[in-house]
Amino acid sequence: MDVLAAALQQLFTPYHLMLVLVGTTVGLFVGAMPGLSATMALAVLLPFTFTMDALPGLIALGSVYMGAIYGGSFAAILINAPGTPSSVATTFEGYPMAKAGRAEEAITAATIASVVGGLFGVFALLLLAPPLAAFSLRFGPPEYFWVAVLGLTLIGGLSSGSLLKGLMGGALGVLISIIGVSPIGGESRFTYGFPALQGGVELIVALIGLFVIPELLVMAGTGVGALAKSKLGTARGLLLSTTKKVLSMPGNLLRSVIVGEIVSVIPGAGGNIAGLIAYNEAKRWSKHPEEYGKGSLEGLVASESSNNVTVAGSMVPLLTLGIPGAPPDALILGAMLMHGLRPGAELFTTQGALTYGFILSMGVSAIVMLPIGLFGGRLIYQAVVRVPPSFLVPTVASMAILGSFALRNSMTDVMIMLALGLLGFALKEVGFHPAPIALGLILGPIAETGFVQSRLMGSSYAIPYLKLVESPLSQALIALCVLAIVWPLVSDWRRRRAAKVGRSA
Amino acid sequence: MTLLQRTLAIVLVALMGVAFAQFPERTIDYVISFNAGGESDITARLQQPHLEEILGVNVTITNRAGGGGAVAWSESQRSMRPDGYSVIGVNLPHIATQPMERTDTGYETENFEFITWFQFTPNALLVRDDSPFQTLDELIAYAKENPGSVTIGGSGSNTANHIATLQLEQLAGIDLTYVPFTGTGPTVPALLGGHVSALMSYSPMAVLQSDQVRTLAIASAERLSFLPDAPTFVEQGIEIVSGAHRGVAAPPGTPAEIVEALTEAFEEATRRIAEEQEEMGFAIIYVSGDEALELVREVTEEYAAILETLQ
């Protein structure tokens, strides 16, 4: 308790609070730009933190991280672009809401959900870090494989309409993810002699291509902006009524933040997977699954609350074990090492005031997202609504190109983005949704790596593949996979039978 | 003077100006072929302010990740201007092994102007601190009785970690199971969670994780000053001295005097950050000039020989 008091005292100085405010704001705007991810924002910031003291340096990094993950929701809602990979699932409901003239409601709901998620993550980090870290270590290569398979079963829930097209899209995503140097083994695949393709297709580049470009082409073709139905001028009491709506779904919020926490403490699985799983679970448990894909507030809240949990959640393995839970955490580890801080028990004892100060600063950052987000969000929203399509399309297109380039300073990535954009447009015309493709892209490499590693780990077994089903955790995950595949079939069959009985009666 | 003479005079003066201009006079782009936050990137960012002070110009760091470094390396040999204003971080054994194992790597191992090798991270064999293996001998004895059942995690395939594991198998006459991971980061939870019996990692991991792991052996010629309790492979009778080197190179064709100026600057910057680097587990070296290319050749030959026995 003493250490918490000391931490609070250190944190609540004007300088530190200003850093939180500025960091969160900067993060928000960076996250809102499609292609500029949280990792990139932290990379640019990192050298500046070397010259700062340890606490302010970490506060700046943590606040930018928090703001960026939340900022991704703006681009997702307003232009169908996942601003960061974490907001993929936000596009599923956020953009349809915006198209229906409910953009402001969507932004407000995303803000409140993000604040709830961010705060939950901080509390879990403060109170439960050691047991959560121990839990995360139980995931080895076989378990990662099954987590990825479990993730792929989401395709059933995400492919609105044709399941076959969903599965084909998922397979296409996995195939695209195979391009480049293989994660295990190191040989290059599908590069057709182009050295530049050894780098493969970067996730965010593919996401921009598949989500943003088709939408821009439609806008350019019809000459109608996506937000044509939106009116300026805030509806009275929107903040209050939306807050009420969000908080009146405590089950959804709780489920989503718990999903976010579990996913984020497993190193290697980040906000993108958390958002997708939370979204799918929200749909499975929903009383109105028919609203999904057409602008369901529930789905939006599930995605946005869970992805902001991952900011503090991924710090659990980082601070306790020195294992970065997600790519942005690697940069925070870098900053810590630079200041002579070594992750582990010592961080919570001798360095307690500093560590808890850092953790609490992320909580403060989550809280200040509320005013900054509501104000900044409205600014961005108004800008997007006011700008006519003839300006909006080229502006967003140049942001998409800039974002694809900036990731690895690569023109090849821009070409890949444009090619996938055209492919995405053509596929959309014949009824393929980009979501299953994105899922395949995200989970393909995790499944492949886990599978090959498990096979190698079992080399001395009579049947090496038994390694995949050896641990109780693997078996539990397999059971979940079976359930995820069978459950929709069973409930479908029941519904049909009930309908039949209803008719014959 | 005629117009022609005057033009010639101006051209001549301009040319002399170019020849005598002090290098450098504008921003130097320092390309890192790995992501921000990795060890190569962090080292470059530590060097950056010192380089700027020494050279008197801005130094920008550009991350161009992909293909385990190969994307940026192939571009540096094909399209980077050899004027000293573009330099690129290079890693051994990566630049030696990649062209051996892939057909489309797009660069040649020796086709760089090596400025200096400034860092060495020897391989380190690590176990969890509650592991039954107290010494390297105990691990070897167990592996002899249970062929293939000792799993060794490491970073990637055909990397320094992988090759050192193969060397250990050959020299000790044992059968181990090497499990590659996608970088050093994911190997740590695999060891701490008990998914592999040991790690073949690098010295910084032994320092970073010192309160959770035990270092059974380290592949440096002598004990490291920052890990005095970690015995070497050599003193335990296994002749393995290997690891990963980091350095910096200019694209092929960069003039010798410019490479020399850069060598001086990078060596001085390395000297200034040496203490911080050693605390983080990096051994500091100053291998420049002809020795730099010599090191590349040695490593290439060594790895070619080991990879051949694998075929």
Keywords:
heterodimer, A: 505 residues, mainly alpha, two-stranded antiparallel ribbon, 22 helices, globular, B: 311 residues, alpha/beta, D-Maltodextrin-Binding Protein, domain 2, 2 domains, 10-stranded mixed beta sheet, 10 helices, 42% helix, 22% strand
Can you describe this structure?
The complex is a heterodimer of chains A (505) and B (311). With 505 residues, chain A is mainly alpha-helical. Chain A has one domain (2-456, 463-500). Chain A is built from 22 helices and 2 strands. Chain A has helices at 2-11, 14-32, 38-50, 54-79, 88-99, 103-136, 141-152, 154-158, 163-178, 203-222, 238-247, 250-265, 271-285, 297-313, 315-321, 327-338, 345-348, 352-386, 389-408, 411-429, 434-457, 472-504, and strands at residues 180-181, 188-189. Chain A has a two-stranded antiparallel ribbon. In chain A, a hairpin with a 6-residue loop joins strand 1 and strand 2 (188-189). In chain A, helix 6 (103-136) packs parallel to helix 11 (238-247). The radius of gyration of chain A is 22 Å and the shape is globular. The model of chain A has no long low-confidence stretch (mean pLDDT 87). Chain B folds into 2 domains: 26-120 and 243-310, 3-Layer(aba) Sandwich (D-Maltodextrin-Binding Protein, domain 2); 122-236, Periplasmic binding protein-like II (D-Maltodextrin-Binding Protein, domain 2), CATH 3.40.190. The relative contact order of chain B is 0.17. Chain B has helices at 3-20, 39-55, 70-78, 94-101, 136-145, 160-172, 187-192, 203-208, 256-279, 290-310; strands at 28-32, 59-63, 86-92, 113-128, 151-155, 177-181, 198-202, 213-218, 243-250, 283-288. In chain B, strands 1, 2, 3, 4, 5, 6, 7, 8, 9 and 10 form a 10-stranded mixed sheet that branches. The mean pLDDT of chain B is 89. Helix content of chain B is 42%, strand content 22%. Chain B is built from 10 helices and 10 strands. With 311 residues, chain B is an alpha/beta fold. In chain B, helix 2 (39-55) crosses helix 9. Classes of the chains: A mainly alpha (505), B alpha/beta (311).
